[in-house]
Predict the 3D structure of the following.
Amino acid sequence: MYCESCGSFFPDGQAYCTMCGKEAPFIAKAGTTAQTVLPDEPAQAVKIPIEPAQSVYQQTDDSDSEQIVLIPTPKKYIVNYAARAGLILGIISVVAVYIPFTNIVPAILSIIFSLVGLNKSKELGGRGNCIAGFILSGVGIVLWILTVIFAIIRTVNGE
């Protein structure tokens, strides 16, 4: 049988593809019947002899004839949401520079979230997001200071 997802070969009756982990189209136990439906013909039940599932990964012990089947499971993605929030708020603080006096709030929040994310980065990762959040929030604070200075200069000059 060939995998529908990646096209690699795996034995009939196996539950998952050994290359990509995609589930086989159907899994049937030995001695059961399967239905075959052809597109141009009406559905009819057809008996197909099905052998017990065999795996590429077989491990046998000398004392037992028990078969151990190892099925690869998908990876669980771990995300440091505080680091991601710090990065996003840092981006907002730089982009919001054209809205007077508003980019300081996301810049300060970016620093807070980046600090929290940095504390969690040893177990969850995301250190790069924290550093980028710090840099962007620093740029946002500098831009905020410049907008305040230019606003004061405009007010003094009467513009």
In short: The first strand starts at residue 34 and ends at 36. The mean pLDDT is 75. The beta strands are 34-36, 44-46.
